[in-house]
Design a protein that fits this description.
The structure holds 2 protein chains of 2 kinds.
Chain A: H1 16-28, H2 30-52, H3 64-95, H4 98-103, H5 109-137, H6 149-170, H7 177-191, H8 203-209, H9 213-225, H10 233-259
Chain B: H1 2-11, E1 19-28, E2 31-41, E3 46-50, H2 57-65, E4 72-77, E5 80-82, H3 86-90, E6 93-96, H4 108-118, H5 123-136, H6 152-163, E7 170-174, H7 182-197, E8 201-206, H8 209-215, E9 218-223, E10 226-231, H9 233-240, E11 244-250, H10 253-258, E12 266-270, E13 273-278, H11 282-289, E14 298-304, H12 307-315
Parallel strand pairs in B: 3-8, 3-9, 6-7, 7-8
Antiparallel strand pairs in B: 1-2, 1-4, 4-5, 9-10, 11-13, 11-14, 12-13
Helix pairs in contact in B: 4-5, 9-12
Classes of the chains: A mainly alpha, B alpha/beta.
Chain lengths: 261, 321
């Protein structure tokens, strides 16, 4: 702690040029990027939703495809933010040395990380928005309450981007990210109520799952998409804000220790 | 070190220096990388930091820019204390890093635009500057070229143009011509001289002694984390080394030289090559004249002493990495 690596981040507002840099790159590749964010989740959702759904009775009072559509938005948000904070941020930090170039300007590492955090959340918002439009067009959501899912997506994106930046700060190479996916992201995806209600799980797993950020996001997003006000809004929002805030502080500390020694 | 401190003190007063470093120390995990160095760079001069790999050059530059916090010592860059006010100091600074880190997703002019935004410059103002900077870098016509399509020399020049986007007073250059062909190196040197004429302060590290001799008003040689010599290039050559060098190589060079040590002030052996350092090379050349007929395998080169000889004398001939 002699160097104060883990002092609170001081983002200020000067992170915006970092966000704009990433946005400019995205704009050049927007169409393949949106297709990538859209195609994979939609294929799963439609295949499982209609295929598996035809075998199932209603789930929590709605057709399975509607139940799954809500889960798909949240899972895609998580994936988009996670990929951006792992692979894309790592290539800018470690491979292209984009961050090194920025650190030679008046911007600090805190500005760079804040720009990356907000960018990853913005990208997950774009991914979530694209899916919302498609499932909306398919008549699988209830308007206008469904629009409230957009801030939930952004907050979910911030939480998963912050967690991803911790992993990015610790990663020696791209291969390291596989551990994060297989040991954390994939199990979380299966127990957070994305594909089936968590009530189907053993009691002990349910207890653990209730603490996971993805579960909080699902608890907020699904009722909104199905036209209901969620229960325990304050609890779920607080959980996501805490995850985002605490993880970003840790990520900032770890990245400072990595790059500013 | 007393004489070195005297030199720096006379070179510039501390208050108007572009960069002032005193008592700088840094160690990692108990291993000392910088062991208390002092130097002053007056404005509108070129200062060269020389040293073998691992001597502490890059760490010194990082400390000066506020990217690494020293364990002890004081740094003032562009009139501001670093690292306390490093962000403000860097508004007046441009950096050409050792390895190109241009944005591969952007064109030349997009690289300049995006970089200018990091300094808080308005888009319109940056766009006004871009044509002039591309022209300076000899990249007119490459404004919309992708980075992958540029040669190594072009990328270096674009990196130099990028370092000028904020019209800095002080420019740091970390090995600016490493990996370039002679044409590209000469072009970079010419541009750097133009910047000096324009009143910019240059702070450069290099492994090329001819580059240091050509560009730098003052040099410091760094080794094992300490400054072991400082001065103008000519001054270092006259004060540290004999003016003439005779390199002798070929069959039996080492044996021949070892029996004739008295013909030069100093004899250094590197493999099978003998380096005689002489104030007067005539007696040695006369002795060689009798030995280097067509039948003999002995050959030699006679030349004036250079900065490279000083560097090798001060830091030794052993490999560092």
């Amino acid at each position: 702690m002699r160097h104060g690596w883990f002092a609170l981040p001081r983002p200020g507002l000067r992170w915006l040029p970092v966000w704009r840099r990433n946005f400019l790159v995205w704009r050049k590749l927007a169409i393949p990027s949106i297709m990538g964010n859209l195609a994979d989740p939609l294929i799963y959702m439609l295949g499982l939703g209609y295929g598996l759904g035809s075998l199932l009775p209603q789930v929590q009072g709605v057709d399975y495809v509607r139940f799954l559509a809500a889960g798909t938005i949240v899972a895609s948000t998580m994936n988009a933010a996670t990929f951006e904070a792992l692979y894309s941020a790592f290539s800018r930090m470690h491979v292209q040395k984009t961050w090194d170039a920025i650190l030679n300007t008046p911007l600090s590492l805190d500005h760079v990380l804040t720009g990356e955090l907000v960018w990853a959340a913005s990208k997950s918002l774009l991914a979530g928005l694209a899916i919302l439009l498609v499932i909306g067009a398919l008549g699988l959501v209830s308007w206008p309450l469904a629009l409230w899912v957009l801030p939930v997506i952004f907050l979910t994106g911030l939480a998963f981007a912050a967690m991803g930046l911790i992993v990015c700060a610790l990663a020696p190479s791209y291969d390291f990210f596989m551990y994060y996916f297989t040991l954390f992201i994939t199990p979380m995806l299966l127990v957070s109520g994305v594909f089936f209600p968590t009530e189907q799980l053993p009691a002990m797993v349910q207890t653990v799952a209730a603490w996971l950020p993805l579960a909080h996001a699902v608890q907020l997003a699904r009722p909104l998409l199905l036209g209901r006000i969620p229960d325990d809004i304050g609890l779920h929002l607080t959980a996501l804000v805490l995850v985002a805030g605490v993880c970003f502080c840790i990520a900032t500390g770890l990245t400072r220790r990595r790059l500013l020694k | 070190m007393a004489s070195l401190t005297g030199l720096t003190a006379s070179a510039a007063s501390v208050s108007d220096a572009a960069l002032h470093v005193s008592g700088l120390c840094k160690s990692y995990a108990g291993e000392t990388v910088i062991a208390g160095i002092d130097f002053v760079v007056p404005p509108a001069t070129c200062f060269g930091l020389l040293g073998p790999n691992g001597a502490g050059k890059t760490t010194t530059l990082r400390c000066c820019l506020g990217l690494t916090t020293p364990d002890r010592g004081h740094i003032r860059l562009a009139g501001r204390p670093v690292p306390a006010e490093a962000e403000a100091a860097r508004t007046r600074v441009g950096v050409v890093p050792q390895f190109d880190n241009l944005d591969p997703d952007f064109t030349s002019s997009e690289n300049l635009l995006v970089y200018g935004r990091y300094f808080g410059i308005k888009d319109a103002a940056i766009r006004d500057r871009i044509p002039g900077l591309l022209d300076f870098a000899g990249l007119t016509g490459k404004a919309n070229a992708r980075i992958q399509s540029l040669s190594g020399g072009m990328k270096r020049r674009l990196t130099l143009a990028r370092a000028l986007i904020n019209d800095p007073d002080i420019i740091f250059l970390d090995e600016p011509t490493t990996g370039l062909d002679p044409q590209a190196r000469h072009l970079i040197w010419e541009r750097l001289k133009r910047l000096m004429v324009g009143g910019k302060t240059l702070i450069l590290t290099t492994h090329f002694m001819d580059e240091a001799e050509r560009l730098c008003d003052r040099l410091a040689v760094l080794d094992h984390g300490g400054l072991i010599a400082e001065g103008a290039p000519r001054e270092l050559i006259t004060s540290h080394i004999e003016p003439q060098v005779v390199e002798i190589f070929g069959d039996g060079a080492a044996a021949w030289a070892s029996t004739r040590q008295g013909l030069g002030e100093r004899l250094e052996m590197a493999g099978d090559t003998a380096f005689f350092y002489c104030r007067d090379a005539a007696p040695l050349l006369a002795a060689l004249a009798g030995e280097t007929g067509p039948a003999s395998g002995l050959r030699y080169v006679h030349r004036a002493a250079s900065l490279e000889d000083v560097f090798l004398k001060l830091t030794g001939r052993d490999l560092r990495d």
